[in-house]
Amino acid sequence: MLNPTYRDYPNPFAARCRIIHSMKGLDYVLLAGLWVEPRSGYDLAQWFDKAARHFWAAHHSSIYPALNGLEQGGMVRYTLAAGQRGPQRKIYTLTTPGEDALREWVARVPNPAEIRDEQPVRAMVLDLLPLEEALKYLEDARALYSSQLEVYQTLLGQLEGNPDPHFRLLGVRLPLLRGIRVQQAYLLWCEDALELLKMRVLEED
Q: Domain range holding 125?
C-alpha cells in the first residue's frame, strides 16, 4: 500500500515523486492492467488468474489493498457501477499522474526477472521417486501445460478479427504471445524429460 498519500503533500511534484518512489512491482502491474482497460478489483483478479499468471501471481488479499493504495496515491480513480448480482462495483481507471508514472516506469531499464518456479526444483530431486511415479508426474505436468496453452491460444484467437481498436493494442497481444511461448517451452521440456526417463527405464530392463 502506498504511504503517505497524495493528499498529504501541498506540492504536486513532491507528492508525485514520493508516491512513485514507494510503488512496488504489483502497483505497476495493476496500472498496466488498468491502462489496457478499466476494471474492477474482481476483474483484475480474474485477469491475473487467466491471462497474467505466466508472468505475475497475485490474489485478492494483495490486489485490493494495492488498489486502495493507488487510489489514495492519486494514481487511479474509481466510479461505481451496478453489480450483476449484489452491491455496486468499483471500476478503476488511471488518472493522468498514474499514466505518467506508468510511462516513466516502462522507459526504465528492466530489472533481472525474479522467477519462482517449483518445476526445476522438483526436477532436481525427481530421482527420489520410482521411475513409474516420475513418469506419471511428468505426464501430469505435460497435461497441465497443454491445458494452459489452450487457454492462452483461445484468448488470442478471440482477438483475431475483432474490429474493436482496443484489441489491436500490442499491450493486449504481446503478453498472450509470451504466455503461449512459455507453455510451448514447458511442453518441449516435458517431452525431453520423458524421453530421458524412458531411456532410463530401458536401461534398467
A: 118-204
Q: How far apart are CA 108 and CA 203, in angstroms?
A: 52
Overall size of the chain counted in residues: 205
Mean pLDDT computed over 40-69: 89
Please check whether residue 72 is in contact with residue 6, taking contact to mean a CB–CB distance below 8 angstroms. Answer: yes
Instruction: Look up residue 178 and give its amino acid.
Output: R
Question: How far apart (Å, rounded) are the C-alpha atoms in residues 23 and 1?
Answer: 8
Dihedral of CA 8/88/58/169: which sign? negative
Distance of CA 76 to the CA centre of its chain: 19
The string of pLDDT tens digits covering residues 132-145 is: 899 999 999 999 99
Q: Which residue has the cell 493522468?
A: 96
Report field, pTM of the whole predicted structure over 0.85: no
Residue 202, pLDDT above cutoff 90 = no
Q: Pick from 73, 107, 141: which residue ends a domain?
A: 107
Q: Distances from the Cα of 94 to the Cαs of 19, 28, 80, in angstroms?
A: 15, 11, 15
Alpha helices, H only, 8-73: 12-22, 25-36, 41-50, 60-72
62 and 137 part of one domain: no
Per-residue pLDDT of 79-134, as tens digits, reads: 998 877 778 899 999 999 999 999 999 888 777 777 788 888 999 999 999 988 99
Based on the fold, state whether residues 127 and 177 are members of the same structural domain. Answer: yes
| CATH number, residue 89 | 1.10.10.10
